[in-house]
Amino acid sequence: MGIMDDVTGALSRGTNAAERAARSTKLKADLRDVNKRRQGLAAQLGASLYEVTRENGEFRKGREELYEGIAQCDGERDEIQRALDQLQEAAAAEEAARQSFACCVCGAMLRGGDLFCSGCGTPADKARQAQPATMSATAGLKCAACGASLKADYVFCMECGAPVQAYSDALTSTEADDGASQEAEAIGAQPCCPTCEASVEDGQAFCMECGTALVKPESA
User: Fold this and answer.
1) pLDDT in tens, 74-94
2) What is the torsional sign of CA 42, 46, 47, 49?
3) Which domain holds residue 150?
4) Together in a domain, 163 and 111
5) Which among 119, 131, 143, 182 counts the fewest CB atoms within 10 Å?
6) What is residue 219's predicted lDDT score, i.e. its pLDDT?
7) b/e sequence 80-105, b meaning 16+ C-beta within 10 Å
8) How distant, in Å, are the alpha carbons of 147, 148, 172, 186 from that of 182?
9) Considering the entire predicted model, what is its pTM?
10) Looking only at Cα atoms, what is the longest distance across the chain?
């Protein structure tokens, strides 16, 4: 019986030690939580008292270093915040400048930060109006000068530089679309300069765009 008592006592002591360790861990966690909450409340109290007493000379006595340190931190904080605001404003302006679009009046390209169209003087907000409809009207066209295919957002032909707007303005219906396509194909069949592909007339001696000789001089 003595041996069994010793074994039971040892097991009981082991169980009590494990319970004490678990209880101690729990209490330490609770203590950290309480201290954290107290620090937060103390910080709020200190901040509110600082705002109320920072102009009170009597209350500042003996605490001048604390008040001056807090004021210095506030100044540094405001300066850092101003620098951050400037960076954010610059980033927003840069992003706006990248968002270019075509004027719905004359087809000139505007940057996001432009206030007026450089081509016709239309205010930017009006130049942006009806933009999707203007762009879709050019879909499926061919360049009137060189016959190259045009995408919906083209303002100038990417092959020869001919303006697209003159044709998109005329496309107000399906019939007008078909007629403009036929006209573009007819013009596209005209002779072109072999150097710059600009349209030329029959018998024209020189290209009016680049000066290339079109008709070889007759030999003597």
Assistant:
1) 999 999 999 999 999 988 877
2) positive
3) 132-214
4) no
5) 182
6) 45
7) eeeeeeeeeeeeeeeeeeeeebbbbb
8) 11, 14, 15, 6
9) 0.36
10) 142
